[in-house]
């Protein structure tokens, strides 16, 4: 997938996260989960953009690792929202699917970069 497509996709993911967090109930647990989800969900796109400007293959591998960690963390917080009963799974399924797809894409990209770095 081209870099520009992933830049658009990760920004759209961030915007969906923002909209989700803004609609969470106003209680302590949602405030804590919401802040964490907002931080990691929006940083996926920011860190992906940084990886596109990596100065070396090793720098790219490091930065894409951060993207993977942040996307996976977003998945964790969304799972908590569902499993705690705060949000019905059906309402988050599309966003969870997108997060899983992004994680898979970035894992594959990182593996390819590591293989290319060995050669």
Automatic annotation (TrEMBL):
PANTHER family: FOUR HELIX BUNDLE PROTEIN. This is Four helix bundle protein. Signal peptide: none annotated. NCBIfam families: four helix bundle protein (TIGR02436). It comes from Flectobacillus longus. Gene3D superfamilies: 23S rRNA-intervening sequence. Coiled coil: none annotated. Transmembrane segments: none annotated.
């Amino acid at each position: 997938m081209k870099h520009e497509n992933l830049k658009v996709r990760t920004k759209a993911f961030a915007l969906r996260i923002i909209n989700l967090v803004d609609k969470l109930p106003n209680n302590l647990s949602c405030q804590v989960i919401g802040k964490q989800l907002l931080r990691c969900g929006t940083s996926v796109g920011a860190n992906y953009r940084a990886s596109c400007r990596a100065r070396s293959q090793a720098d790219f591998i490091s930065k894409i690792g951060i993207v993977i960690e942040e996307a996976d963390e977003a998945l964790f917080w969304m799972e908590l929202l569902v499993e705690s009963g705060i949000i019905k799974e059906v309402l988050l399924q599309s966003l969870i699917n997108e997060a899983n797809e992004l994680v898979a894409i970035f894992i594959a990209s990182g593996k390819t970069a590591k293989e290319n770095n060995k050669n």
